Amino acid sequence: MKGNDINLDYQRRERIGFDEAILCDGKSDEQIARILDDAEQKSISLLLTRLSERARDALAENHRSAMDYDAVSRTGIYGAPYPTMAGPASIAVVTAGTSDTPVGREAVRTLNYFGHKVLEIGDVGVAGLWRLLDRLDDISDKAVVIVVAGMDGALPSVVCGLVPGLVIAVPTSVGYGVSDKGRTALNTALASCAPGLLAVNIDNGYGAACAALRALSPAFSKADGTRAEDR
User: For residues 162 and 116, is the Cβ–Cβ distance under 8 A?
Assistant: First the structure.
């Protein structure tokens, strides 16, 4: 789809293994409709992020009926997602508090769209450390653990010191005063003494999911999602 204001990257899967997502925040209702019209014409699926309920409701009925919409994460899956991979989940998404759920769910929905099963664990922040310790066995065997936390943003460092897999910190804008709309949590992740902790931008659940996809990409085929050893 090419024009003065929209030029989608339909070759991205061939280059990097997963498709372009459609960031709806800032797009007009008409632009979103044009993108979905093109997807329908080409019989392709799309992941839409930051799609508000108002914008979803403004879509034509044929677009709404073809979309799996989740209001918590503000994500829409248009058409059929990638086939779900066989075997147990290799990724966990862990959130510090219930208020961090929308960002964590964006990561989960992104990974689900691309065929990954995900273990989702909520409300295990460091203010009650026993909650995390109770679930430690569940996440210790995961290849990637995405940890979503606002406020002081301490949870990613704690998790990174306890599990062997790749840990990706997602700071959120949750918090009061000097939490500074997520900047304190981001600085905590960047200054972490836990070796190997990676961080993405504030509230960027989608970006964390894509980092996980890239981390796992050597083991999977770009074309069909099967493990290399199964081909």
Answer: no
The pLDDT score that the predictor gives to residue 142 is 95
Is 49 in contact with 74 (CB distance < 8 Å)? Answer: yes
Give the position of tokens 């839409």: 48
Give the whole-angstrom CA distance, residue 2 versus residue 20: 15
Residue 81's pLDDT is what? 86
In which residue ranges of the chain is pLDDT below 50?
Answer: 1, 219-231
Query: How confident is the model at residue 165, as a pLDDT?
Result: 94
What is the spatial distance between Cα 97 and Cα 52, in angstroms, rounded to a whole number?
A: 22
Per-residue pLDDT, 16: 81
**CATH number, domain 91-218, options 3.40.50.1970, 3.40.190.10, 3.40.1190.20, 3.40.50.1980:** 3.40.50.1970
Full DSSP string of 123-141: ---GGGHHHHHHTHHHHTT
Please report which helix (H) or strand (E) contains residue 65, including its range.
helix 61-65
Does residue 66 contact residue 78 with C-beta atoms inside 8 Å? Answer: yes
Instruction: Provide the 3-class DSSP secondary structure of residue 60.
Output: coil
Domain-wise residue ranges, the chain: 12-78, 91-218
